[in-house]
Amino acid sequence: MYLAHIRQIVEENFLTAVMKNAPRNCRGMIVVPYNDDPNKSLSAR
């Protein structure tokens, strides 16, 4: 029963198109400010 519950969570939250596109949608919010940061050489790689 526990594995069935985990499988359901994975299917509902990670295998849907919404979660597949979420990282792509957030990437623009991260990359643009990082590229414009004058102190990015001090950031961790």
Walk me through what this model shows.
With 45 residues, the chain is mainly α. It contains two helices and no strands. The longest helix has 20 residues, at 17-36. The mean pLDDT is 78.
Q: Structural class of the helices, strands and pairings?
A: mainly alpha
User: Helix segment count?
Assistant: 2
Give the overall average pLDDT.
78
Radius of gyration: 17 Å
| Quantity of strands, as a count | 0
Our estimate of the beta-strand percent is under 5%
Helix amount, in percent?
A: over 70%
Order of helices and strands: HH
End-to-end Cα distance, whole Å, is: 42 Å
Give the biggest sheet.
Answer: none
Gross morphology is elongated
Uncertain runs: none
Give a short synopsis of this structure:
With 45 residues, the chain is an all-alpha fold. The protein has helices spanning 2-13, 17-36. Helices cover 71% and strands 0% of the residues.
Secondary-structure map:
Blueprint: H1 2-13, H2 17-36
Please tag this protein with its features.
elongated; 2 helices; mainly alpha; 45 residues
